[in-house]
Write a structure and sequence with these properties.
Layout (H helix, E strand, L loop, with lengths): L12 H17 L18 E6 L5 H12 L3 E6 L11 H11 L2 E5 L3 H10 L4 E3 L7 H13 L8 E5 L4 H13 L2 E5 L8 H9 L4 E4 L2 H5 L4 E4 L10 H8 L6 H4 L7 E4 L11 H4 L6 H19 L4
Parallel strand pairs: 1-2, 1-3, 3-4, 5-6, 5-8, 6-7, 8-9
Helix pairs in contact: 1-5, 1-6, 1-12, 2-12, 3-4, 5-12, 6-7
Bound molecules: phosphoric acid mono(formamide)ester and norvaline.
Length: about 300
């Protein structure tokens, strides 16, 4: 069976835990090394990943490229608009062709159905590099960051502030798989995707919704936010107005646990979802989180290739 990573549930809780361990071990084994040097065992030597971007990206494209280099393989980056996809070649045919040419495909797109279509017709692993529905690779990096900073995942209280978006959906999904809880502080009308919430609850996670942002962060071990206007969304003015009370500032961080971590997948809109003094403050781990995209992606890739 080809292993696709369209959502965290494709791997499941045990594999996710294995990825976090693998990422920590590999990261520790290459401290001080040149960033492009391959890991000693080069487990993906000779393998090639094709990445297709229908949306902008800095972290995802660089981290996957570096991940492939560190695993001993290489990658090809394709802007969708400059491929035949941009001229109407079908996703199914693209999947068939790329499956003959490369060993795995990563796609960043809008409609989640597009990545499902790609996976349905690909005979090599397909990895979700963000869709409007979810961003699973980001959450592997986020969990790695949390664990690295000494927090155990079972029973962890994670507060999410702002918009009920794709990143939140993957956090909620991870909560169900790894046994932590999510306190969602979002304004009415911008709620989390109920499908992900329902599944996480059915797996035993406590997912609560709070209209009062202070209530959402009360007792939280981790405070997370993201842009209020995701790529492809319109109505920025109304969104920003509705979400301003949920801004993560020093006063709101003070309502969480004293040693709470602050996470943001980036890019940040400083002064909107989070203030400079939080992003650059002592509780922020956003730069570790960004670096961890490389280490997390390596483990996602190893899982997709059947090595974990
Ligand atoms: N966090 C994240 O996915 O960043 P990019 O949009 O830069 O890839
Ligand atoms: N929610 C954001 C994440 C960017 C990495 C978006 O979809 O634009």
């Amino acid at each position: 069976m080809t292993r696709h990573f369209l959502d965290l549930s494709d791997a499941g809780g045990n594999a996710l835990a294995a990825m976090l361990n693998d990422a920590q071990d590999r990261k520790a084994a290459r401290i001080g090394w040149a960033k492009g040097r391959a890991d000693a065992d080069a487990p993906l030597a000779g393998r090639v990943l094709a990445m297709i971007f229908e949306k902008n990206s800095t972290r995802t494209r660089v981290s996957f490229d570096m991940a492939m280099r560190q695993l001993g393989g290489s990658s090809i980056i394709l802007e969708a608009g400059s491929t035949q996809l941009g001229r109407g070649e079908t996703i199914a045919d693209t999947a068939r062709v790329l499956s003959r040419m490369v060993d795995a495909i990563m796609l960043r797109t809008d409609d989640h159905a597009k990545i499902e279509e790609l996976a349905a017709h690909a005979s090599v692993p397909v990895i979700n590099g963000l869709t409007d529905a979810s961003h699973p690779c980001q959450i592997v990096a986020d969990l790695l960051t949390v664990v690295e900073h000494g927090k155990a995942l079972p029973g962890l209280e994670v507060a999410w502030l702002g918009d009920g978006n794709n990143v939140l959906s993957s956090i909620v999904e991870a909560a169900g798989l790894l046994g932590f809880n999510v306190r969602i502080g979002v304004p009415e009308g911008y709620d989390a995707d109920p499908a992900y919430v329902e599944v996480a609850r059915s797996r035993g996670a406590t997912i609560t919704v709070h209209r009062d942002p202070r209530e959402a962060v009360a007792g939280a071990d981790v405070v997370v936010t993201d842009t209020w206007v995701s790529m492809g969304q319109s109505g920025a003015e109304a969104r920003i107005a509705a979400m301003m009370p949920y801004q993560v500032n020093v006063a709101l961080m003070a309502a969480a646990k004293r040693d709470a971590l602050f996470l943001h997948c980036l890019p940040a809109h400083r002064g909107e979802e989070a203030t400079d003094d939080v992003i650059d403050g002592p509780q922020s781990v956003v730069w570790d989180e960004a670096e961890n995209r490389i280490h997390a992606q390596k483990s996602v890739l190893r899982w997709a290739f059947g090595q974990l």
